[in-house]
Amino acid sequence: MKKKLIQDLLVVENKILSEKYFILHLQSPTPLPEILPGQFVQIEVKDSKNTFLRRPLSIHDVDYKTNTLKLMVQVLGEGTKKLSLTKQGEYLSLVYPLGNSFSINDNEKALLIGGGCGIAPLLYLARHMNDKGIKVTVLIGGASQSDILEADEYRKYGEVYITTFDASLGEKGLVTQHSIFNAPTFDFTRIYCCGPEPMMKALARIAREKGIDCEVSLENMMACGIGACLCCVVETQDGNKCTCTEGPVYEFKYLKGW
């Protein structure tokens, strides 16, 4: 098992994307450890009366040249609201890198799909794949245009398609209803996805129908991040597993009920 760090990282920037989303750009005082696409951090929320435990956040991107990483965050409760007020020059305590990673095969033709903030772990994955010469296509879905995050960043690594439920951007509907799935040129070998569980289960059904692989990044509640509290347990073909240590990435066929 690779060593995990508990470290205070400098806030280089807190980029506000909208009322609901922001990106923390953090810098390590030492060279970053090896970080794989799909891994996450547990972040401490300081001075929050009701936030006692660290919060799990996907690693959005990594830059080893500057020893920085980015975390894309959705404001959902008191803890994330407090984090959204973080200012440049402050320090945040992280435990990282945690969890397993997406699998990457050189001969893959990949379709990366994210719903809302579920797109967060897929940027670093797209960068990794691009560096390996793997063709990447990204499908981003949201309720409206304000939920389509960082599309231009993903365009650096491949084609980007968009769906919004209100038709304010891209095709109207859910990501699972995008015309790409019915195109005669659909020849992807694997789907990688993160977002609401119903969305990922629907994508798993599409993958099964098309006879291709599909990896999902689960967003189970993770209180400890090290497999001690058991609150993130998921049913698998090999029994119950802790998402924070055995996951968060799973091949959908390994999960019971998928």
Structural commentary:
The chain has two domains: 94 residues, Elongation Factor Tu (Ef-tu), domain 3; 109 residues, Rossmann fold, CATH 3.40.50.80. The strands form three sheets. Strands 10-9-8-7-11-12-15 form a seven-stranded mixed sheet, sandwiched between helices. With 258 residues, it is α/β, with parallel strands linked by helices. It is built from five helices and 15 strands.
Largest sheet: 7 strands, mixed
CATH topology of the largest domain: Rossmann fold
Taken as a percent bin, the fraction of beta residues is 35-45%
* Number of alpha- plus pi-helical segments: 5
What is the domain tally? Answer: 2
Morphology call: globular
- Widest sheet: strand order? 10-9-8-7-11-12-15
**Total beta strand runs:** 15
Keywords:
single chain; 258 residues; alpha/beta; Elongation Factor Tu (Ef-tu), domain 3; Rossmann fold; seven-stranded mixed β-sheet; six-stranded antiparallel beta barrel; 5 helices; 16% helix
Indicate the topology.
Elements: E1 5-16, E2 21-27, E3 40-43, E4 55-63, E5 68-74, H1 78-84, E6 91-98, E7 109-115, H2 122-131, E8 135-142, H3 151-155, E9 159-164, E10 171-172, E11 190-194, H4 197-210, E12 213-217, E13 233-236, E14 239-242, H5 243-246, E15 249-251
Parallel strand pairs: 7-8, 7-11, 8-9, 9-10, 11-12
Antiparallel strand pairs: 1-2, 1-6, 2-5, 3-4, 3-6, 4-5, 12-15, 13-14
